[in-house]
Amino acid sequence: RGVGGVKQGEVCGDHGALRWDAPLIKTAAARLTVGRLGALDHGLDAEARRRPGPGIPTTVIAKPPASPAVAALIRGLREGGGLELLPPRGSMGRVMEALAEGRVVIFFLDQRHNQGVLTPFFGRDALTAPSLAIAAARAGVPVFPVWQRRVGIGAHSVRLYPPFELSGDIHRDTAAFLCFVEGRIREEAHAWLWLHDRWRRP
Asked: Are 25 and 104 in contact (CB under 8 A)?
């Protein structure tokens, strides 16, 4: 059984690559899916800080850690790089505003979402937030996959890929996004940091 044409057990492949400062990113509001291999916040912070002037205005949808101390540390890293932070719940209105302002909006799809849609992930259905696909359907802007990985001690790479071909179907597009995440994890499974049961049901 599968969702949106992605069959369970199917191995998700590569997706090509683009430059982070490609014209498409500079001239159009975009949404990006992001997975984590290594210290994601170092990659985002370094990318934001290395650019002169205002750079690319970016908004991030992210659930803060349960620990107040860790949450404050991560918030400091992200906001120090000029990122706008939004909580996962109740932010769709601001997401639409940010896109209308020409901001890049980043969604993380590698966390379990108990009210999400069942989506194939490594051969098993996993509850996944449909918010990225919903925002894409409403705003009609491209979705660019982004993947960050560690490439050495203190060195990280952030890779931008060509936009998805969106169908407008929430289940089908969410399946395509998660298929991309699975494909990147399969390339370097040893680097995937995960701390909870991704496939657990409420």
From this structure: yes
Residue type, 140: G
Rounded-to-integer distance, Cα 166 and Cα 173, Å: 6
pLDDT tens, residue by residue, 26-70: 444 455 555 555 555 555 555 555 554 556 788 888 778 788 998
- Whether this prediction's pTM lies above 0.90 is answered by no
Tokens of 47: 């990318």
Beta bridge partners of 35: 147
Output the DSSP codes for 103-157: -EEEEE-SS--TTSEEEEETTEEEEE--HHHHHHHHH---EEEEEEEEEETTEEE
The encoded tokens of residue 65 equal 């850690």
Give burial (CB, 10 Å; 0-12/13-18/19+) of 118.
middle
